[in-house]
Amino acid sequence: MDNAQLEELARQCRRHIVRMIHSAGAGHPGGSLSAIDILVALYANKLRFDVENPDWDDRDRFVMSKGHASPAVYSILHEVGFISEADMMSFRKIGSVCQGHVDMKWTDGVDFSAGSLGMGLSFGLGCALAARMDSSDRDIWVMVGDGETQEGQFWEAAMAADFHSVGRLNLIVDRNRIQNDDFVEVQMEVGDVAKKLSSFGWNVKEIDGHSMEEVVSAIEWSSSNISSPTAIVAHTTKGKGVSFMENNPSFHGKAPTDEELRMSLEELS
Amino acid sequence: MSAPSTGGASRDGYGSALLRLSSDPRVVVLEADLGKSTKSCHFRELYPERTISLGIAEQNMVLVASGMASSGKIPFASTFAIFTERGFEQVRNGVARPGLVVHLCGSHGGVHTGTDGSSAQSIEDLALYRTIPGMTVMHPCDDLSAEELTVQLLNHDNPSYTRTARNKTPRMYDQETCKSLKIGKGSVLREGGDVAIISCGVMVSESMKAAEYLSSKGIEATVVDMHTLKPLDTDLIDELAGRCKGLVTAEDHSVIGGLGGAVAEHVSYNGGTPLRMVGVPDRFGESGTPQDLMEAMGITYGDIAASCESLMS
């Protein structure tokens, strides 16, 4: 897909995201909307997967460590054919394949069971080590939130990934600057994440996470670098695409009202 | 306590088992700087390409293991029992919840660990892992049984936690008898009709000593090596409850939530079989020799025998 097509797909996904969360009456719009441009570019243009064979051994893995951004994942899984409209809209309801936080046990196309922050990079490292043992060229992509880098385990994994020189491990940090309670800088400023990862031995690139051109080119850069772990620090806007959610901590984990849904869909039309 | 026999500690059995499992290329070993202690070091020596060193970082180790399990490997990860607990939530959320088959081994469990003191003496690990849906929880009593049960994990469909002990205890099995062991099935080591002692780990040999002592006083005890705490062999417990005057559990673990807790949960539904629990009271350990500590905590063969006698009176 070209960038214009990717942008259009991202717009569709943003509509799914706000509809899903409104229907469930709960969920995390802010971090879903900040991450979606990157997910769209990955799923539409990069990841190797087979909708007919979700457990295919040599598929690329996408580890969504910030599992509360599940609506972003479900929206793109719907668009690429893993889950139906009805499945998507059953988000957070009893028996739904779309659990509140992404869960590999429940949803075809989901490679990790998230919900507890700080674990995804370690899991991705395990996937990458196994791929190397199998001499497989499958790529492992991990997305974390910036607040999530406050977890010590994240840095345990960052250190280990460099030590084990896993080249096919690709990290994306969604640097949207807001976490559950407030702005990251208020809760526990994480500072220059790119510099920190770089000092841990990672190859790092910083981009505007909403510029499709920069996103697509960074994904290519990351996947072509297989000599060391690579990280893309994507500067994003929490709630991107819905004006009253943008950069607004109260929409980290709150469903839109009926009126807010109407306004959101109007902006995303 | 009996003088150590020619056998090794149960942690040595874990190390031997990994070598036997090495012929399966899916088997990988993960370490957190304690491979010399848990005995995974022997595997590392022969198969460095399948051994992953994660440094002193247990939480990361648990999730690296689950990532590998999701990619077709059969990971065996070990550290001290107490340090596995640092990764407890990782085991809960990152291993068991998605149903990924990771085998975790915690060595140096219990006050029997000795002079290192209370920081190293996990007395709650069995209780913790028993609460996780789908986890198999084991605590073998000697090196040969630990080896046999660990080898059986190769074809096991659930994630597991196995506690091993630092120190040698008398062997309860030989090369032949240990082959009859099966995950999830208690092993009856001695038959007696008056009382049944259900034990695990280092307390199995103490239980055998207690049974010999009781026999000299006219009380005949059955002794069970309940190496698997979960799934618990409830058929065997029901059978023993039906033909004995009561049950005594014996473990080097808190009386809260371990083997005693598991048996108590079960018998509360079967008509309330009289039960006594010998275990570490609700307190931390301290430095001392294994024998000193077992006496201080009230978990010697004498304590087991006294509990049995109290059921008979």
Beta-strand fraction estimate of chain B = 15-25%
For the terminal residues of chain B, how far apart are their CA atoms?
27 Å
Output the CATH homologous superfamily of chain A: Thiamin diphosphate (ThDP)-binding fold, Pyr/PP domains
Largest sheet of chain A: 5 strands, parallel
Distance between the termini of chain A: 20 Å
State the assembly state of the protein chains.
Answer: heterodimer
Summarize the topology.
The complex is a heterodimer of chains A (269) and B (313).
Chain A (H helix, E strand, L loop, with lengths): L2 H22 L4 H17 L15 E4 L5 H11 L4 H5 L30 H14 L6 E6 L6 H12 L5 E7 L8 H5 L4 H7 L3 E6 L3 H13 L5 E6 L22 H10 L2
Parallel strand pairs in A: 1-2, 2-3, 3-5, 4-5
Helix pairs in contact in A: 1-2, 1-3, 1-10, 2-3, 2-9, 5-6
Chain B lengths: L9 H12 L5 E5 L3 H4 L2 H6 L4 E3 L4 H12 L4 E7 H4 L3 H9 L6 E5 L17 H6 L5 E3 L4 H10 L7 E4 L23 E4 L4 E5 L3 H14 L4 E5 L2 E3 L3 H10 L3 E8 L4 H9 L7 E6 L9 H8 L3 H12 L1
Parallel strand pairs in B: 1-2, 1-3, 3-4, 4-6, 5-6, 8-9, 8-11, 11-12
Antiparallel strand pairs in B: 5-10, 7-9
Helix pairs in contact in B: 1-8, 4-6, 9-13
Brief summary:
The complex is a heterodimer of chains A (269) and B (313). Chain A has 269 residues and is of the alpha/beta class.
Can you walk through the features of this model?
The complex is a heterodimer of chains A (269) and B (313). Chain A is an alpha/beta fold and 269 residues long. Chain A has helices at 3-24, 29-45, 70-80, 85-89, 120-133, 152-163, 184-188, 193-199, 212-224, 258-267, and strands spanning 61-64, 140-145, 169-175, 203-208, 230-235. In chain A, α2 packs parallel to α3 (70-80). Chain A is globular and about 50 Å long. With 313 residues, chain B is α/β, with parallel strands linked by helices. Chain B has two domains: 10-163, Rossmann fold (3-Layer(aba) Sandwich); 181-312, Rossmann fold, CATH 3.40.50.920. Chain B has helices spanning 10-21, 35-38, 41-46, 58-69, 81-84, 88-96, 125-130, 143-152, 203-216, 234-243, 259-267, 290-297, 301-312; strands at 27-31, 51-53, 74-80, 103-107, 136-138, 160-163, 187-190, 195-199, 221-225, 228-230, 247-254, 275-280. Chains A and B meet through α5 and α6 of A and α4 and α6 of B.
